[in-house]
Amino acid sequence: MKRLALFLVATTACTPFVSRSAEAAASPEAQEVTQKKADKATALTKKNKFVRPSDDAEQVVVTGTRESHVKARQSISPVVVISSKTLERSGELNVANALTRTYPSITMSARGSNTNSLVSSIQMRGLGPNETLVLVDGKRRHSTANIVQKPGPQFASSGVDLNMLAGNMIDHIEVLEDGAAAMYGSDAIAGVVNIITKKKDHGLTLSGQGGANAYLGSGEQYQLDADGGFKLGKDGYVHLGAQFYQTQHAIAWGPDHALLGYWPAGADTKNYFVGVKPGSESWRGRKTDYLSTPKETRETFALNFGKPLAAGVELYGQATLGYRHAEMMAYKYPYVVPAAGISELRPITGDDELDYAAELGLKGENLFGFDWNLSTVYGGDNSRISIRDVVNLGQLARTGYSPSKFWDYTQKNTQWTNNLDLRRGFKIWSMPVSLAFGGEHRLDSYQIISGNPESYLDGGPVEHAGIPPQSAGTWYRNIYSAYVDATFRPTRKLSIDVAGRYEYYTDTDNTENGKLSARYDFTNRFALRGTIANGFRAPTLQESHFSRLNIFAGTGSVGGQLPVESAAARSLGAQGLKPERSVNASAGFTMEPVRGLHVETDVYQINLRDRIVQGGTVRGAQALDAIRSFGFDVSPTATNAAASSAYFLSNGASTRTQGLDIKADYLLHLHEYGNVALVAAFNLNRTRLHHNGVSTIGKPLLNDQTIGYITTATPRSKIILNALWTIGKWDVNIRQSRYGETTNMMTYQDWTPASATCPGGGALRYSTTCFGQFKNTPRWLTDLEIGYKITSRVHATIGVNNVFNVRPRRLPGNLVPAGGSMYDQFSNQVPFTGGYYFGRISASL
């Protein structure tokens, strides 16, 4: 809190400049001097061109309303506008990271496990990626094909990967802080993120940025951007953008228990090497690089066009294309395979991903008095997962040979969406009414293609097996929906919005959703607003049909995820998934207590039932029988049946999320000293478990650890304070962010004494019922950026994110596994990468 106090004191200290200028102007002797200063300040202000925070709020928005010409500050529901300049000043090269850095309600996992670390999904208001709807220019965006496979805050999610969009094509982002399933359909529970792209018919913008995590000595990355527009005929436009991004691994080296050569009395050393395995002394002291970010190369492209065809009729379209090659180091302590002359294995998981979308539409006016919009969007994501620098031990033992690279499987996810929207305004007894209605058809498909035989036969390679043909397949579903949305203005001060939506699914339950919102403007400086709505999220095809087998090298155990729709899962008690359902309520106010100071405050509550979580975990011989019946070959590797498990997904939990959002901005005019744009944003968020489902064997579906993933792994609060000072050709941006506490229940690991027991019975070490509570205490991050306008068209910037190299709190030794992470990787708090230094240059032509 000391840094917060210093920031507020510094802000307050700026006000004497304003008051002293006013006193000078009141002095007759100084009027001439004051006028000269004012003229000079005016000239400087014209030079200090930047997007004011209030300009964002005064921008016309299209999210959360079916009306036209509604500004963010006038909207019935809270809408935040984040400009492209704000995203650029985050210093981040990825869209998801930039949002996390600049918007307090959005967080991300510090590091994903396995393949989910290769994609990037955001979380809003503490809920999962699947509970946030992402739109691009108001149209539903397809999600990634990749599903998060391992337990954690994002388990089983397959949200939209924002990083597969060309970030330099973003004009601004509109965030609706409200449940809006009645307006947009499935997923709009925590809120809606609408990405508005550039559509200019002129200009060319070029930029490049490079940097590295200096304190780690790794994480080198750079990005090149280009976008521009030109006219299509006399009255149309085309806007194109391309982006190239490359990054190396950012590695946070840490101690590896298996290589230290010492351990506490009673430590579990069966997987240790130094001092335990013959001939391994040469590895003494070597550190683990388990905690690292992916190595990635990514190319993205986007195109927008629009062309009037006749009076009041326009043809428009959009295309996006992205390709990614990413690799994640799956660190293993040295794993000896004498038959192959291997003294260690270093598996590298790879993802070759193609993401695409194409949109074509017609919009016009005066169709029986209605504005209309007819559109079709087809998009998809193909993800090819492989693993290299590893061996198939079963094949090696059977044949004496094993390849070192395996294609595990390919996932394909596509979405075809067709929309017809109509709206018009009219009056009922002099009361203005805006009416909108329409329909949508969506075809979802999901495909799993099995890997090469070596990836799944004989137990598969160390780390994880490929997907066999029995698990492969293609699944479809159709969704038909209709909505109506009406806004009434009974008086000049009162606005009421009523929306309803019906959705029919061919593979799950149908839903009916409604929303009632109201706003009352007491004056032009103070207004109250509130919303109550119900919503839903339909289970994804990935959640219903994905399967996976993980092999825990050296332990003789396996873990299998079975599709909830499969006979194998049903033999363990699985049932078909239902939609998650929510009830959202929010209330707040907007005010301008003094001219230029804008404040918005909203409280909210989200009751979410039938949450899709891991459930039905079964251990032992029954689990292995179910895994075998599904087609996985576990005979060579599953020698420890008691430690092996099988699980599936279920509608197993209900939660309540409560929170508070506060936002404020003020533009401080310092005359000849430039301008300072001040922005403060605060999110307070808490999720509690209200119901924990029971498995077929009478045990709770969620244990204390998995409960923590969905309730306390997200910061309790997040504050972002930003000051942008512009003077002449210079601009300085400083951002102070506070991430609140996170709490997770950690597994007691190898340094836990073997004699320690769990109060509920059994050994404490590796217990699935007793856990060690670990708190990541609050952290402050300081970001600094300094820019200079070299010419009227060229701007150069240097900056540091996380100036003081703040890291998460370290785990105690009894919660750190051999060769594992020294940090809690499931905490959605500060990143582990530390200080990031960068430089950027941009040119507008």
Q: Which stretches are poorly predicted, pLDDT < 50 over at least 5 residues?
A: 1-54
Q: Roughly what is the average pLDDT, rounded to an integer?
A: 87
Number of strands: 36
Class inferred from helices and paired strands: mainly beta
N-to-C span: 44 Å
Main β sheet profile: 22 strands, antiparallel, barrel
How many DSSP helices? 13
Shape: globular
Proportion of residues in helical segments: 10-25%
Radius of gyration: 28 Å
Task: Write a compact overview of the structure shown.
The protein has 845 residues and is mainly β. Helices cover 12% and strands 46% of the residues.
Could you describe the 3D structure shown?
This protein is mainly beta and 845 residues long. It has 13 helices and 36 strands. The strands form five sheets. The chain has a 22-stranded antiparallel beta barrel, surrounded by four helices. Strands 3-8-9-6-7 form a five-stranded mixed sheet. Strands 1-2 form a two-stranded antiparallel ribbon. A hairpin with a 5-residue loop joins strand 21 and strand 22. The chain is globular. Residues 1-54 have low confidence and may be disordered.
